[in-house]
Amino acid sequence: MRRLFNILLYGFLAICITASVGSGLVYFLLSASVPDYNEDFSVAGLGGPVDILRDASAIPHITASSAADVYFAIGFVHAQDRLGQLLRARRMAEASWPSDETLSVAPAVSDALESYAAGVNAWLELVSAGGRGRGSPELLIADERSIDAWTPGDSLRIARSFLNGLRPESARKGTPSLSSAIIPSDRPKVLELFATDPQQRLDAWAIDGDRTAAGTPILAADISGSLSLPSEWYLADLQFSTGPAIGATMPGVPFVIVGRNTRVAWAFRSFPVPDEEAPRGPSPVQAAGFLTMLELFTRSADATDAIGVAADMLPKGMEALAIDRETVARWPKEEAVRALSFRDIRLAELEARQSIFSTEGAIGVQRDTVSTVARTLLPLMAKELWFVQSRDSIEGTDANDLRRELLDRLASWNGDMDRYSPEPLLFWTWLRALQQRILKDEFPAAQQLWTRPNPNFLYAVLSDRRGSAIWCDIRLSSPRETCEEQVRVALDDALGWLVDRYGRDPSTWTWGEEHRLDMQWSPISSRGLLTDLLSLQAPISGDPFTQFLTSFGVEEDRPFLVSAGSNFQAVMSISEAAGSYYITPAGQSGHPLSRFYDNLFPSWIQGEYLAMSTDLSLARGGASGTSRLTPATSDNPRMSEGQSE
């Protein structure tokens, strides 16, 4: 018996020791790839020394004597902070665009892409020399056994994929267009029914100087897309000898996509392009033109100069906005003719509400969470219910009392999608139940069509546009159901769903309980337990149609889960008095063990913007590190300083 006890004891100790050693080894390998922002490097490919100052938020401010060295350094820091993201973006771009045509691009762009590739490869060589844990934690478990050198074609393909992501999902995936073969013959066509959202969306609006407190124009920019870790955007300040450019860069591309120099700020709006105009998506020529335009923006002297560039190179489906100290300019000069969206309507209301704007006022508009969808559809849904008693279809509750309480709440609600309020949860659950009631009989197999709320379609039906109210009739039943009947039954469906999940007391219901952000770590090629452990979750305000945009998911059990939305916002003014500000949802680093992995997340949730400054003296205050890249010599080629051969 004693011998058995000793065997079990020693076995248990052996397991503990093995687990401890294994955990220590894993931690060592993971921590070895956390960048040291105070480390200096000697690398091949540079023309001169480069200083990289990382401010308190780890945003790099890169100073060099030549543009080539600046682009080299941004490639280096992209790889240093976001190597896994770079490789994932390259893999996805190669899957979409297996090869690119050989293009004759502008010399400045060609040189920039070559320098950027050299910077990425310089970091890859340092990683391959050992001691850096393969450069990124996911590379320890991914199937990337060897890492190919970065090429300018990789950056071109990533730019092409970005432009393709601005197209609706149906255009990107070749989904069949709307046709009479899909819609039953007794139902009128409602074009909004099959509308799909783009993977990414660019929004921007500008205020003339005569309507601002500082007397200079203000440009507000918003990019929406995946909310993942790391963020899709990387903030950087590129200090060229001709002047700085600061803003949002995209790992894989060396240029500032949305941002400003000392004279001009620029941003974009995107809108759907009909399939017949771009059946195969953006061409390599369009991608090259887009990159050329961005390179020229960094050197633009004024807003008119920038828009002149955009007039020649702006891809289809985009509008460009630029401001300087006096002018607001746009291309095309006339806005594209399109139906106003619910977000457009709310933005127009907010712009009309203020006669004079400050940057703080523009920030308030960007963070607005009042939904025009609720303000538009709720009166149509509830107009016949305020004084009508309910059928008791909710087991174990007095349905009339519960319905009356909730209808009273909705009657006094202003449409604010506040995460701590019950009204948004009731409204969207009701809307979702109504859409299911209306569409499930026509499309029983197309679950996503009737489970994800489509307010544009429901507005057409509830307002009986061109006889669209017939959609409320259930085709398989003998009686002809009206929209009023469907709305009433859908409310009972919604209340039953909510009571089952949260109980009978509406004061305990909150929008954020269902409308939760699920920001997951995005590894190169696999997901699993590690991804779940590294994710960030929090209740969040807004909806897919508010200015602060938060999209819904597709999970049946968690229909309002958020994994996409506004992932970069900026308010820019060339006036020193007004200042420029930006906000992103996560951090600069893609490494889960870095303190800059999610350091910006609390500020993003609370709507606290960071100052966008090219002043290096301000960046030095509380700086998180300074490093220098120097050209490698024949005595010490391609080695980090402090390392031996």
Automatic annotation (TrEMBL):
The keyword Transport does not apply. Keywords: Membrane, Transmembrane, Transmembrane helix. Residues 622-645 are annotated as: Disordered. InterPro entries: Ntn_hydrolases_N, Pen/GL7ACA/AHL_acylase, Penicillin_amidase_A-knob, Penicillin_amidase_dom1, S45. Residues 625-645 have a biased composition (Polar residues). One of its GO terms (molecular function) is hydrolase activity, acting on carbon-nitrogen (but not peptide) bonds, in linear amides. The chain crosses the membrane at residues 7-30. GO terms for biological process: antibiotic biosynthetic process. Gene3D superfamilies: 1.10.1400.10, Glutamine Phosphoribosylpyrophosphate, subunit 1, domain 1 (3.60.20.10), Penicillin Amidohydrolase, domain 1 (1.10.439.10). It comes from the Bacteria. Belongs to the peptidase S45 family. PANTHER family: ACYL-HOMOSERINE LACTONE ACYLASE QUIP, PEPTIDASE S45 PENICILLIN AMIDASE. This is Penicillin amidase. It comes from Pseudooceanicola lipolyticus.
